[in-house]
Amino acid sequence: MPIPWPPAAVPNELGTATLSLGNAQYHTLQPRLEEAARAGFHQIDLFDECWAAYLEEHGLPGDQLWEATADNLRVARKLGDLVRSLGMRIACTQPLRKIEGIKDPAERRATLDLVAQRFPFMRAFDTDLVFMCASIRTDAGVTSDLKTVAKDLAELGDMAKAYSEADGGRMLRIGYEGLSWATRNTWASSWEAVRMANRPNVGLIVDAFNVLAVEFADPYNPAGHGRIYPTLQESIDVLCASLAGLVASVPGDRIFFFQVGDAERVDPKTFLPPTDPDVPVLLPWSRGHRLYPLEVERGGYMPVHLVAAAVLATGYQGPMSLEVFNNSLNTSGADVITTHARRGIEGLRKLAQVVQEVPAFWEMWQQGTREFRTIRTGRL
């Protein structure tokens, strides 16, 4: 059930993906973690590339990042100890890609077993959550059929449960996220698979950028406003109708993680779609032009606060965690880490304040009020 709104406070801890403070190619992991702690973050989302680079810093092969050798696990425990010593914790590790819906039994088995290879590392990191993006494969070897995807999620949940029961540790969890260029690209299509999997340790990952990239934004719209619909009001109406469904149908404890990111309004005259058919249309925008929440002064324009309000209204109690890719992170210099950590924590703190000003639009929808005119604020 949705919680009473507005909340008296937003108690959710603030986190960041390691990649959102600097690209591993230019910035080693420890300075990013130290700066995250200084900035005030409490949770870390460990990205695979950052973990691979950390292994290489310790003289180990980064392309074998989930091989449970004694050396790899020793370095994993060292990383977990480092994060704890800074007063933070590793909330999750990600991303798993192209996992579900594989038709060939042998390939399916091998792919699911790749997920299980992470379990010993999750113990070493002292985290209980790993999550996967919905598959972007469209070849004949995969299917997005609901029953098939749900069966795969259920089996992953069972594998995580069996591992947890065998070692006596806390229950390991599997999260599932709708990627904006995947076949299952909405919170609703991801949720139906999680719901049908029917495992308590399989839950939904909500990423504000991916929600908005499908249900609000179109960076290539020739009109230049960056939206799907011509008017802001229609765009907000459509988005709020979807988010009202999220509040009504998804219990807060079934959302395992909430990622936050805005994006820059680009000029469609110069920012053109990729010509390579193998590159998803939204990928260049996602990888190079995300922003921290509510960075209007940098061109941010997406209503991240509406997604955040809906997620919190479900009763979700986990972290609000940044996942921001931007070309500005792909440069060297210590100031890159410091600047982005400051921008990130400021954006999250501002978001925590702004969501309390959002009216309970999900209740308006239930009452048949289809035009959410009170939602429009100076932040849109």
UniProtKB/TrEMBL annotation:
Stretches assigned to the Xylose isomerase-like TIM barrel domain: 33-336
Give the InterPro entries listed for this entry: IolE/XylAMocC-like, Xyl_isomerase-like_sf, Xyl_isomerase-like_TIM-brl
Known Gene3D superfamilies for this protein? Divalent-metal-dependent TIM barrel enzymes
Pfam families for this protein? AP_endonuc_2
Record PANTHER family: HYDROXYPYRUVATE ISOMERASE, XYLOSE ISOMERASE-LIKE TIM BARREL DOMAIN-CONTAINING PROTEIN
Name of the featured protein: Xylose isomerase-like TIM barrel domain-containing protein
